[in-house]
Design brief:
Layout lengths: L1 E6 L2 E5 L5 H5 L5 E3 L6 H4 L13 E4 L3 H13 L4 E4 L15 E4 L6 E4 L4 E4 L5 H9 L3 E2 L10 H6 L7 H4 L6 E7 L5 E5 L4 H7 L8 E8 L1 E2 L3 E10 L3 H11 L6 E9 L14 E9 L3 H7 L11 E2 L2 E4 H4 L12 E9 L4 H11 L8 E6 L2 H5 L14 E9 L5 H14 L18 H8 L1 H14 L19
Parallel strand pairs: 4-6, 5-6
Antiparallel strand pairs: 1-2, 3-4, 7-8, 8-12, 9-13, 10-11, 10-12, 14-16, 14-17, 14-18, 15-16, 15-20, 19-21, 20-21
Helix pairs in contact: 8-11, 11-13, 14-15
Length: about 475
């Protein structure tokens, strides 16, 4: 059964699916259908809570395949999902009954070390890109884990280890090649389709399928100072105060405070396994000795349970918390920007974390500021630059029967910190939370500007499996 887009924003499964042979005539990549041997593997995404069965998975081999798939979907009024790294918590990379335009095999990376730029295809992950750019001592702000895809991350803004120094991933986007809902190919940059370029830097995949990204690179490493420091839960107030103070640290420092249960790791004393801990994940992307001095206040907290902060290759640091983002687990997230981190907010965070329901769940608090805050709010669709902190509550578990209690914990925690929220939310941390939360990710003025772009480039809302900007024109 095929899911068709029968009207703007409406999804209705209908009988008489289109003839997939028609698509195969103009497609060089692989077409995977429910009867094929690799269908079950091809439909999986990172979040195990998402269990959807598309009618067609179109594994593209290049831009021509993307154009063919988009035109086929449009002619047949099919529901469309676009897959890059498939690391999205909402599961937008797969759909029921429609077509998945799968970009995961588009892995091209072309680094120009003289110009300090890279041209990257949308199936690339951050670990793959970093490996190529670090060969030249270069990098661009990427995700907190190396397995995240560059495509959705960049289109949603992109906050990571280098963001306080160099801005968001979208701040470092120089141009994109994009296939529109009409199946046309165009380029967007500061000088070519500049309003669309404004929109793709934070507006997600609402306006088309991006087939290549041109990114600005910066000298980084190859050695940075960073790693993880584990403290018992009774140190959590001091650690969170220190994270609050890190907002005033030099831009080279990016920190994440993680509250969780201690994993059964060999570097931790056996007696603390399964107990509440707070972890500082740190990256100093500057001179090593200067970084040691900046991090000296950590020594005033007393002896940590484990101290793994050391000079290390940037590629190693960028993958140091990959285990916490591995595929195959159920996930439910809630997030928001915080306007401050006062003592009563710290108390609320610690008390809520103490009731955590899964040994692999966590919550993360990290400062923004730096280059993110200095960029003009009007430069791109990415919003809430002045928010000083982000909190991301990550429920993860491996038994679907336990879903309700983990989701309830996440929602109750999120509600508890609402008094400290700016009201905004980082779009890349949004699940399937409704239109009001999408608006909150941008603010009313930016949202309305994005709607105008949607009306122009996708009036029928073909690309609606995202944090959707709903058009106000089209078939109704």
């Amino acid at each position: 059964m095929i899911a068709r887009v029968a009207a703007v924003q409406s999804l209705e499964p209908v009988e008489n699916p289109p003839d997939v042979e028609e698509l195969k005539q103009s497609f060089r990549g692989q077409i995977v259908c429910p009867d094929d041997d690799d269908y079950e593997e091809a439909r999986k995404v990172w979040n195990a809570s998402i269990d959807r069965r598309p009618s067609i998975i179109a594994r593209c081999s290049g831009t021509a395949d993307v154009m063919s798939a988009v035109k086929f979907a449009g002619r047949n009024e099919m529901l469309v999902a676009v897959r890059g790294g498939a690391h999205n918590v909402a599961g937008n990379a797969v759909c029921d009954g429609g077509i998945v335009i799968d970009l995961s095999r588009l892995k091209g990376i072309w680094v120009d070390p003289a110009a300090r730029t890279a041209r990257v295809q949308p199936g690339v992950t951050w670990g793959e890109l970093d490996r190529e750019t670090q060969a030249f001592g270069l990098a661009t702000p990427g995700g907190l884990v190396s397995t995240t895809g560059i495509a959705g991350f960049t289109l949603g803004g992109g906050i990571g280890w280098l963001s306080r120094k160099f801005g968001t991933a979208s701040d470092n986007l120089l141009s994109v090649d994009l296939v529109t809902a009409a199946g046309d190919h165009l380029r967007a940059s500061a000088t070519e389709n500049p309003e669309l370029f404004w929109g793709v830097r934070g507006g997600g995949g609402n306006f088309g399928v991006v087939t290549s990204f041109e990114l600005r690179l910066h000298p980084v490493g190859p050695t940075v100072l960073g790693g993880l420091m584990f403290y018992s839960a009774d140190r959590a107030p001091q650690v969170l105060r220190l994270v609050r103070d890190f907002l005033l640290a030099p831009d080279e420092l990016f920190s994440v405070a993680v509250l969780r249960l201690a994993p059964p790791a060999p570097f931790l004393p056996a007696g603390v396994h399964g107990t509440s801990v707070i972890v500082l994940a740190l990256c100093w992307a500057g001179p090593i000795e200067e970084g040691r001095e900046i991090l000296r206040p950590l020594r005033d907290l007393g002896e940590p349970l484990a101290d793994q902060v050391t000079p290390r290759p940037y590629t190693q640091l960028q993958s140091m918390i990959d285990a916490g983002g591995s595929a195959g687990f159920h996930n439910y997230w809630k997030a928001q920007y915080l306007r401050d981190l006062p003592e009563n907010a710290i108390d609320t965070i610690i008390s809520s974390a103490a009731t955590i329901t899964s040994p692999i769940s966590d919550l993360k608090v990290f400062p923004m500021g730096g280059a993110v805050a200095r960029a003009s709010e009007e430069d791109s669709a990415f919003g809430h630059r002045s928010a000083p902190f982000v909190i991301n509550i990550n429920s993860r578990w491996d038994m679907s029967a336990e879903s309700d209690r983990h989701i309830q914990w996440t929602r109750e925690f999120w509600s508890a910190v609402q008094p400290f929220s700016t009201g905004g939310v980082y779009v890349n941390f949004l699940g399937d939370e409704g239109q009001d939360r999408v608006r909150a990710a941008y603010g009313e003025a930016k949202y309305n500007r994005l709607v105008a772009l949607k009306n122009k480039y996708d009036p029928a809302n073909l690309f609606q499996l995202n944090q959707n900007i709903k058009p106000t024109v089209g078939r109704v």
